[in-house]
UniProtKB/TrEMBL annotation:
PROSITE patterns: HESB (PS01152)
Provenance organism: Marivivens donghaensis
InterPro entries: ATAP, ATAP_core_dom, FeS_cluster_insertion_CS, HesB-like_dom_sf
Domain of life: Bacteria
Domain Core: 6-102
This protein's name: Iron-sulfur cluster assembly accessory protein
Amino acid sequence: MNVPPTVTPRAFDRLAEIGAASQGKALRVAVSGGGCSGFQYEITLDEPVDDDLVLEKDGEKVVVDATSLPFLTGATIDFTDELIGARFAIDNPNASSSCGCGTSFSI
């Protein structure tokens, strides 16, 4: 059973703070080959397209393309603000290992 990714309220709140929806943008979470662990996350502000999975709250949107979706099944998309910096972060149950910076992973 494929469980779609979830987005925390904190991530949606951050999108609202930066005004993504008012610019016609969504947070795009994609997976591509590369990185130090085999796959890497690409997190950008982008316009949604027809084949995207759209996760929405109060007009703010997070989108995942059809190719990346299997890699993000059951993942949680969050926003963290720590001493080392603020960023959107992914907790991915499909990843068997990940690098220290949290942007690449292996399955």
